[in-house]
Task: structure prediction
Amino acid sequence: MNLLEAKNITKKYYKHTALNNVSFNIQKGSIYGLLGPNGAGKTTFIRIINQIIAQDSGTIIFNGEKLQSKHISEIGYMPEERGLYRNMKVGEQVLYLAQLKGMPYNIAKQKLKYWFDKFEISSWWDKKIEELSKGMAQKVQFIVTVLHEPKLLIFDEPFSGFDPVNAQIIKNEIIELKNNGATILFSTHRMESVEEMCDHIGMMNKSEKILDGEIGDVKRQHRTNNYNVTINKGDVGNILFENNISKIIETKPNVYFKDQIDVTIKMHPNGTSQQLIKELMSIGELHHFQENIPSINDIFIQHAV
Result:
């Protein structure tokens, strides 16, 4: 079932179209990656979900109902540009923001203690936000976002400002939240995180959705029929492939073994991997054979130009 359905969303600013008839479905209990180059319309779409701005046309369904103001408390949003008050103390601020989300003071304080202990930041309680580094403030913002256990969590560039260790901590927390039933929408330019974390992705460019689907299906749809193989250097001259099942695209020396060579081979659409393996083994010793399936980063670059 879908937690959120966006149907034919359009938003214009004077002569600029920010979103042009965009539709997305986000399944309950999934992580959905919203991708696209700067200016594609991602932030506008996220702001509409958060009811910061309104669409000109189209409908958003949240948990089976048309999106309404009452749903704000069921959504947690961590924007790329963080919204903490720099002159307020951390503890005072997070308690205030938790109560704005409808949490009773005592429950908010109890849950905050859990998160502050978990992140080992209890000593920050009486510090002002302006005393914290960007990464430290990010952790506080993350806690504020997830504290009231919303049905939908939206993270816009959640790893911005984090070193690799703390980025991994936040990544693990997002996955744990999903495993505990949360539905997550996040936008990022870190394609390795998308590949590792997401169940589904949607890609936007120039105000339109250009790609949408389960991440494995998206990668399979962009297969190139290229294979990376490693053979003995002396055997490469014997690769003729007179049966027209494939052709050599590139050869280069193997980094680790001087007597071996890496070859990129493009297989004919009517050929099979079994045919290619048989052909290679008839030529010489085959050390490595792997289909070169494009990464999400490759797919992003292909569609973002």
